[in-house]
Amino acid sequence: MNNFSLKTLSISVIAASLVSSLVFAGNDMTKSLPKVAEKAASFSQFVADYDKDKSNTLSTAEVAKNDVLTKNFAKIDENGDKEINKEEFKQYLANMKKTLL
Ligand SMILES: [Ca+2]
Ligand SMILES: [Ca+2]
Q: Which position has the higher pLDDT, 100 or 2?
């Protein structure tokens, strides 16, 4: 009898902590983080700020003001043409989100 109720108790404790960690993950990770990342870093925003020659891609010279993009340029520029295009930037953001989550 005692053994049974102890088991039930520990199961409900485990279930409760699982639920609360899921709620935490739901609130803090899956909702707010991607929103923040999208707001702070949309490609069109970067193009508006940095794309001096209106090519719709960003060269190393154009992102020179931005430390993060400069440091990660080689990583973001997947096809190695020394320009970051929209697809490459989207891929970079997606990878960044995966790392954060
Ligand atoms: Ca450009
Ligand atoms: Ca490229």
A: 100
